[in-house]
Design a protein that fits this description.
single chain, alpha/beta, Rossmann fold, 6-stranded mixed beta sheet, 4-stranded antiparallel beta sheet, 10 strands
């Protein structure tokens, strides 16, 4: 589905990514791991057209580099940013409705599906999103992205700062999304989650891919984990 190769990205004159490559296939969960500051978030922002980049980002064979973020989203890519980016002055219901890309589309996800995934959102449906807890805001932004009926969802640090109970709920969410045939590209620091749910892993270091392989291969390589993940 998604094939990234020779990707370089820049913030002004700062060269952040240096020839990054990764891919995501149909129905896969692929994790992009690494310490803070190595370029993981920049990589998915580049895919979504949010940073200056060169190289190749191909979606089902079509080149995406040079397209605007809304054009990329309409092709079936969903993006959940690390900062959640909810509309705090709108209700939970209004936030969810803003995720729908077309009033004419018959999407695979309904608002009732969102309530099945996270029942607490139904209880807060007409409450302003800004008063939700951090965990509830994370649930909302995940569901808002699904309302756009993506074929691939890219999620940046979904468990950052969440209580262990909410982390478990997010892990269940990811598994249910995969069961619906949606591919996932997960930027994550919690190694246990990535090893548990991913089919393949990429590890980044200094703006480059330093490892690609299976969770089993990475989990069995203590030296590699220590060099690129453990502080």
């Amino acid at each position: 589905m998604l094939e990234v190769s020779g990707l370089h990205a820049f913030y002004g004159k700062s060269h952040i990514l240096h020839g990054v490559h990764f891919s995501v296939g149909e129905g896969e969960i692929v994790s992009l791991l690494g310490r803070n500051g190595v370029g993981r978030s920049t990589a998915i922002k580049a895919v979504m057209g949010q940073v200056s980049a060169r190289g190749s980002v191909r979606w089902r064979g079509e080149e995406l580099l040079g397209k605007k973020p809304f054009e990329i989203a309409r092709r079936g890519l969903g993006y959940v940013p690390e900062d959640r980016a909810i509309f705090q002055d709108l209700t939970v219901r209004q936030n969810l409705m803003l995720g729908v890309k077309s009033a004419k589309a018959n999407g695979n996800w309904t608002m009732e599906d969102m309530f099945d995934l996270f029942p607490c959102l139904k209880e807060r449906i007409d409450i302003l999103a800004g008063v939700l807890s951090g965990g509830e805001q994370q649930m909302l932004t995940l569901c808002r992205t699904l309302m756009g009926d993506p074929q691939l969802i890219m999620i940046d640090e979904p468990t950052e700062g969440l209580a262990p109970k909410i982390v478990e709920q997010v892990a269940v969410f990811l598994d249910q999304v995969k069961q619906r045939g949606i591919s996932i590209l997960l930027v994550e620091q919690k190694l246990a989650i990535a090893l548990d749910i991913s089919q393949r892993l990429y590890v980044m270091g200094h703006g480059r891919i330093v490892f690609e392989g299976t969770p089993q291969e990475f989990g069995n390589d203590a030296a590699l984990r220590k060099e690129w993940l453990e502080v």
